[in-house]
Amino acid sequence: MSPPQDPEDEQGGGDPPGDLRSVLVTSVLNLEPLDEDLFRGTHYWVPSTERLFGGQIVGQALVAAAKSVSEDVHVHSLHCYFVRTGDPKVPVLYQVERTRTGASFSVRFVKAVQHGRPIFICQASFQKAQPSPVQHQFSMPAVPPPEEVVGREDFIGQFLRDPELQERYRVGLNRIAAQEVPIEIKVVNPSTPSQLKKMEPKQMFWVRARGYIGPEL
């Protein structure tokens, strides 16, 4: 998916309106240091389930871990476990354990705590950048380009136009459609209301930020 145009090209520098990178760094991913390797995070978006958004907890935990390593290493492995439901009414404390600090690799264990109990744990491994002949990623699958895939709003609209859609589903979809989501997601080959079908136990998506996130991200 092609990256959004850099707003600074039009506005001559500064933080442009809709600069998602600034929002992420200054709010969602900004942790308050309380002590050495102890941070407090505040949540800014609660989904319709009225529970903490798991992706934000992962992001804040990774930020906490990264604050305990040098700037010349980068995360290359992250294992996460959601232990309990998060409470959106209270902040989250992130406790970082420096499991190992080596010359090339460093390992950090992070525990996210609310009400004195862990709601999430993860282990992150950081590595200094160095060439490697080993490649782990899958080959790019053959899928239609994002310009040919139905977007979230149009996809929901297809269901809402179905006269046989039950009212409780219609209410829920309208609630979802009204939410402002900073990430644009396009599902490859989704089912339609008139063509519900069995599918493989996997899905493919095109994903990008709706706002500007900087040239290096």
Automatic annotation (TrEMBL):
Keywords, alphabetical: Hydrolase
Domain of life per record: Eukaryota
A GO term, aspect molecular function: fatty acyl-CoA hydrolase activity
Domain Acyl-CoA thioesterase-like N-terminal HotDog: 45-127
SUPFAM superfamilies: Thioesterase/thiol ester dehydrase-isomerase
GO biological process terms on file: acyl-CoA metabolic process
Recorded family membership: Belongs to the C/M/P thioester hydrolase family.
Alphabetical list of PANTHER family matching this protein: ACYL-COA THIOESTERASE (PTHR11066), ACYL-COENZYME A THIOESTERASE 8 (PTHR11066:SF34)
Name of this protein: Acyl-CoA thioesterase 8
Organism field: Bos taurus (Bovine)
